Amino acid sequence: xxxxxxxxxxxxxxxxxxxxxxxxxxxxxxxxxxxxxxxxxxxxxxxxxxxxxxxxxxxxxxxxxxxxxxxxxxxxxxxxxxxxxxxxxxxxxxxxxxxxxxxxxxxxxxxxxxxxxxxxxxxxxxxxxxxxxxxxxxxxxxxxxxxxxxxxxxxxxxxxxx
Length: 162
Prior knowledge:
Largest sheet: 3 strands, mixed
Radius of gyration: 19 Å
Number of helices: 9
Order of helices and strands: HHHEHHHHEEHH
Distance between the termini: 31 Å
Mean pLDDT: 87
Number of domains: 1
Strand content: 5-15%
Strand order of the largest sheet: 1-2-3
Oligomer: single chain
Low-confidence stretches: 16-20
Structural class: mainly alpha
Helix content: 40-55%
């Protein structure tokens, strides 16, 4: 086998392995999610008080209210939203509510490479990938019953960037 054929096969292998990891594609527009008037009202009140993702927002009254009012089905649908911040808000609520299929949702977003700003009061802003924010909601120190052990968390984190 000639060197040109070997180089060609290596190139094909490289292209093939790169093409398997595709970015996450949102499937739902925010407008269609908010056709439900009750959800639209609850979401608007929540977002008025929570313009950004903020560290420890689960302690805010608006978050608690939204978490209590939104249905699991609506929240799962919101994790498919075109807006990365909406996906993260919904995932955060599902984690806080100990949604039994939260890990499946996380793995669905393993290639969700969109960035968004997360604020750490009083003045630090971190630009994070959606998949990293979601994974952090299940870190070993979270309150979620579906959280990962340290070993699992480290393995999944590494896998997300292969």
